[in-house]
């Protein structure tokens, strides 16, 4: 004997919860079609009831009930199960994946429920693309603000499926968030509609393409990471390039200095017309390479410990039309020994060896030189600031906190980026 979540005692029969794709009843196998016709009660979304009534014709069974209103549905299901009736409930996709399954389990005992999932829209979308999806992630906008999507994009997932909500966050909202994140060039956007239906549609939309005027409410958006198309260096902004224009390390695509922080760091470096710039922990080379666009006569020496840094930063340099003096793959401070003494130094990245790196920099920094350190924690600031002060540098501290607009149905909400502390030291000029 089992007891439901509402206290009713249920006997005997099972509730068969059957997933369907966008084809609805027409996509079901013959055995399931026969089982539905033989049922005593069939519950289904209202959009399927007309097809069910056509199937039933003049026959008295099965009884039909819409599943869209749980307050009416659940008591009827409980009575039917208690009476030992044959009951089938039709649902979309996998009932246990953003479906009615969660609600049923809250009110009915699990041993009285048997789930038969159909492929989800997520599975069908990747199947239609012919792309493995074990590396994919997903996010739902159903009944939610789109701000989490903006935050997720900053991690630069290889593939991201967005379950849209036409009432709050449809395909248009996804595109606006992608644009506000500066990542339009870094992702292909695919729009899937009515997947599983004979009239299904899957299409790739370029940033300038309008949404289909007949966009179906049942749609899913796939964002697939792609190498950004090359743009003529003359067509690029002088500095402050969108994040999506940079080639990334495939295994760590989100680890780069965001545009707003990059702009501030370039200002804090007080770039001279001539001199030597060290970019330590250069990542994809974004700050150092933009510095060369501002000051083409500078010598940029980029140091990055990740394998493949030379090729990646070199490729980004080609895209920007600049040429660093050298890119070294190695660990600082050991990799700094062969470099000419610097006039400007940016120390990015973290790690326990940051004090040793700063010590090596301070031993080589020329008179009038500037060193800038973007930091993620106040502990790092407390550790490194005294080191600059004891070396006789003038020290300033600032915090960069930027927000990017995330569209809402009624306007725009500001989604925060991670705050960055900036520690700057300036060595006095020679007597």
Describe this structure in words.
The model is unreliable at 1-11 (pLDDT under 50). The radius of gyration is 29 Å and the shape is elongated. The strands form five sheets. A seven-stranded mixed sheet has the order 15-14-13-16-17-21-18, with helices on both faces. The protein has twelve helices and 21 strands. It folds into three domains: 2-118, Tetrapyrrole methylase, N-terminal domain (Cobalt-precorrin-4 Transmethylase, domain 1), CATH 3.40.1010; 122-225, Tetrapyrrole methylase, C-terminal domain (Methyltransferase, Cobalt-precorrin-4 Transmethylase, Domain 2); 241-426, 3-Layer(aba) Sandwich (Rossmann fold), CATH 3.40.50. The protein is α/β, with parallel strands linked by helices. Helix 8 crosses helix 9 (286-294), helix 9 (286-294) packs parallel to helix 10 and helix 11 packs parallel to helix 12.
Condensed summary:
The protein has 431 residues and is α/β, with parallel strands linked by helices. The chain contains twelve helices and 21 strands.
Classify the helix fraction into a percent range: 25-40%
Cα-based radius of gyration, to the nearest Å: 29 Å
Strand content: 25-35%
Q: What is the makeup of the main sheet?
A: 7 strands, mixed
**End-to-end separation:** 93 Å
CATH homologous superfamily name of the largest domain?
Vaccinia Virus protein VP39
Count of strand segments: 21
Features:
431 residues; Cobalt-precorrin-4 Transmethylase, domain 1; Methyltransferase, Cobalt-precorrin-4 Transmethylase, Domain 2; Rossmann fold; 3 domains; five-stranded parallel sheet; 12 helices
